[in-house]
Amino acid sequence: MFRNITPVVQNLLLINIVLFVVSGFLFPQLNQWFALYYIGSQYFKPFQFLTYMFIHADFWHLFSNMFGLFIFGPLLEQFLGPKKLLILWMVCGVGSGVLYSGYNIYRMNSFESTVEQFQANPDPERFNQIVIENRGFFDRKVFDFVDEFSRNPEDPMKITQANQTLNAILDIKGNIPMVGASGALFGVLIAFAMLFPNTQLFLLFPPMPVKAKYLVLFYGLYTIYNVLNNNPMDNVAHFAHLSGLLIGGILVYKWKKDRNSFY
Fold it and tell me: Domains (ranges, CATH) in the chain?
């Protein structure tokens, strides 16, 4: 099985695995340097649009991305050629980071506006709504404070504490990094589905065969649902996954129109 690994897939696997080991055991500071931060964060650097896709949160994060590359990458490399597979992986990875950053700017600006509106008109009911919408960032003490604030809406100390709480969440939101090659992998998935749509894939959970086009369609719809749902408890960058699907689809569509470019 491992003898069928193609050169680009093999090199990408090695780079990601080596960096995971190095950042996990030798130079943990690489996780902060290479992760992709919100553009307004003090930790943001332009090179992170490239480096974030080679850093993973934990073993299972790495395993899932590399397993997908290992399964779908070799056939794509044989069909497209090494150069185009590498272009697909890198463009989808970097492009996902860029599009996700734009989406993150929109989310941060929206939350900043919410905080400013509350500070201009401190209202316990509005504070409670913000806490519920961002419950993943709060501990139990904040919910106890909501009750106290509701009973004392004019108390200057309660208003100050509420403002401090929201400013702290704003700071936390602005410094949550994104890592992983999922955007690049989703580009590979859509490419595989577009080029080999009727290829039968056997799932482990549930154990059943499914055509590639239906599997990717399910992933796409599931990703769109999660983007729209925007669950504050979910720390997966679903918009980056959706971006990978979109960019990969556009690339393969262009390549399929210009068949003379295949080699």
Answer: 2-58+70-104+179-261 (1.20.1540.10), 106-173 (no CATH)
